[in-house]
Amino acid sequence: MIAETPADDSPNPPVPELERRLAQQALIAEFGRFALKNNTLQAILDEACRIAADGLEVGFAKVLEPLPKENALLLRAGIGWRPGLVGHARIGADLESPAGYAFKTGEPVISNHLSEEKRFRTPKLMADHGVKRAVNVIIQGEGTPFGVLEADSRDPGAFNPHDIHFLQALANTLGVAIDKEAARSRIEELGHELAQREAHLRRAVELNPQIPWAANAEGQIVEFNERWLDLTGLTLQDAEGEGWLEAIHPDDRSASLSAWRHAIETGTSFDIEQRVRMANGDYRWMRSHAHPWQDARGGIAMWYGASEDIHERKLAEQAVAQSEERLSIAVDAAALGLFDHDLVTGTIEWDGRIRDIWGIGAEEPVSFATFADGIHPEDQAAMQAALDQALDPQGDGRSAAQYRVLRRSDKDTRWVAAYGRTTFAEGRPVRLVGIVQDVTTHVVAEERLRRALADKDLLFREIDHRIKNSLSMVGGLLRMQERAVSSREAKDALAEASTRVLSVARIHEQLYRSANMDTVEFGGYLQRLTEDIASSLGSGNAQITVEAMTMLLPIDQALPLGLVASELLTNALKHARRGDEPVPIQVHFGPGQDKGGYTLVVADHGRGLPEGFDMRSQAGLGMRLIVSLSSQLNATVEAINTAQGAQFTVSAEVETA
């Protein structure tokens, strides 16, 4: 103890002083009962201040709590101090402060004359309240000191060692109460943490795809998680023992029971995939596994297991297996060879088909040199170009090439089609995989087909040439016959027949000269046909204007449309006159009103059509041909008089095969 005056150690204090000490003991007992009943730390601290002030008959008391970071003591609780100071006011915690000295040394401090104190400075808080004397003791239970308990007085007088004993006893009781409150708070915290952990564990169990269960040493199920029972619709009584087997698919039941009994007999882990019946009657794939837990003697005490829903994974695996099976069947059916080239290590894997194409053994190692040496010299450039394309990081990594392979075993030449896909990493090619197919049969067949088509095309051209020559000969004979007869009517009939024959001959000439045997470029054909008809009918000086666009027409449409044009032009040359002089004739071939169609117009500046003209009622062969051929073309024919003369318009769609 540190005090200003010698301690009063009289063994027999006066009677009033004895009563005062007994009263102090009663106050400590009262505080002890209060602390036992109260669970609020602040209330306990406040009550300690009140007891200290009452016991020492002073106007001020306080509990000071250390603030290590500030090297100060906080006025945590108190009595007698001005409002607003408790919880905020601070005093020094250094050795020059009475309270700081008591806290740091653990020794009680008595200052009976603060104004004359030489050992310590007087804290401003106490000077502002006119405190003249003070006594300080440390508050400490079993752990770290909590702070300082101090009593202060404005009255003159002196604190003595008996006051120290009272105040220290009160501080010790307060320390025990603080320890109790801290323990209670810690218990509450631990209880809260435990509740949180239990809730966390419960949520983890509920949300975990693993559904736990347990069995005894004999393998009898003794515990199932509620989720498993909810999923299967079984009760715990139903599932106990071997009752769980009722939820297993009949096809999986025997294997599941056999695997479980084997695990029990051997003490090894249990792991099986099985279908489990759900409460709605559906079956889902689940994986069940368990491990034994051994007691101190090494014997199996319990089995702890879990079941996991793997239905989606199982279906995906089955789908992948089916896909791989279909792929394998497709690869076999298409006779595809598979290769895998690790571009980092240079390792190449070939299956049996590629090895057979290159003519190398099943166990012989392969390299890029093996591959390149088998390529036909004339196809090396094409192969390298395809490979460069596949390995280009700027491309899509795909490649396709067709080249010849010279089999090493027998030097036979095989045509192959190769398709590859490159994988890139950090802008570099790292892997090339693909397929190779022997297409020798297809290439040979295609070459034969090309030759056959070429022969066929040549034959068709020769036929068209011969037909054209034959028709031209017939046309020439008709013109000779025309010149030989004297009847005007006969001459006209022979001239018209000759014109029709020439129209068909021109079609075959077009086919003979065309690169395509199925279509005719009708615009050019119409130009030449007009010239032929004008010459054939002796109208070489006729004023005929032709406007014809370039259009390819199928032969089945070009021939009847050519005959219609021939009849319309012949009719105009014969009848479109004013007196004996021929009049201008316009021939136009262009697009129709609808997309993909065409329009043929033949107009003249003649006398026009007679009133009430109807093509279908005309008796002449020419008009009947026009009507019939237009019907064959699904075309419409319109005959009208314009301000200049007669106009015939034929409109139709281009029909594709």
Structure report:
The protein has 657 residues and is an alpha+beta fold. 45% of the residues lie in helices and 25% in strands. It is built from 17 helices and 25 strands. The strands form six sheets. Strands 3-2-1-6-5-4 form a six-stranded antiparallel sheet, sandwiched between helices. A five-stranded antiparallel sheet has the order 8-7-11-10-9, with helices on both faces.
Distance between the termini: 123 Å
Radius of gyration: 59 Å
- Uncertain segments are none
Based on Cα principal axes, name the global outline: elongated
Please tally the helical runs, counting DSSP H or I stretches of 4 or more residues. Answer: 17
Strand content: 15-25%
Structural class of the secondary structure composition?
alpha+beta
What features would you highlight for this structure?
single chain; 5-stranded antiparallel beta sheet; 17 helices; elongated; GAF-like_dom_sf; PAS-like_dom_sf; EC 2.7.13.3; HATPase_C_sf; kinase
